[in-house]
Amino acid sequence: QDNDPKHTSGHVANWFRRRRVDLLEWPSQSPDLNPIEHMWEELERRLKGVRASNANQKFAQLEAAWKSIPMTVVQTLLNSMPRRCQAVIDAKGYPTKY
């Protein structure tokens, strides 16, 4: 959740509330602190040029591509979080290299 309006709509908020999911406060639209953006880029790279003839096929392709991303990629992104946080602090909230 990065406080993007589509993530904070009443419908989404109710979904989380019904499932008793506690959300952390997060700066609005802060890709510096959001490693999932890098995961989406990885997924896009893996699906570049891949075509689907219907929604079910597309879902299967997305799922297969997601599962093919090595855990080392995830771990590297998670390990980068302290550096990301420090970079944001050092930049006084301005954009960073992340």
Describe the structure.
This protein is mostly helical and 98 residues long. The protein is 55% helix and 0% strand. The chain has five helices and no strands. The protein has helices spanning 10-18, 36-47, 55-68, 71-79, 81-90. The longest helix has 14 residues, at 55-68. This is DDE_3 domain-containing protein. It holds the Pfam family DDE_3. GO terms for molecular function: nucleic acid binding. It comes from Caenorhabditis japonica. Residues 2-52 form the Tc1-like transposase DDE domain.
Short description:
The chain is an all-alpha fold and 98 residues long. Helix content is 55%, strand content 0%.
Describe the largest sheet.
none
What's the total count of β strands? 0
Structural class: mainly alpha
Strand content: under 5%
**What characteristic shape results from the CA principal axes?**
globular
Oligomer type: single chain
Q: Uncertain runs with pLDDT below 50, 5 residues or more? A: none
Determine the fraction of residues in helical runs and give it as a percent range.
55-70%
Quote the average pLDDT.
88
Radius of gyration: 16 Å
| Straight-line distance between termini | 17 Å
Q: Please, how many helices?
A: 5
Order of SSEs: HHHHH
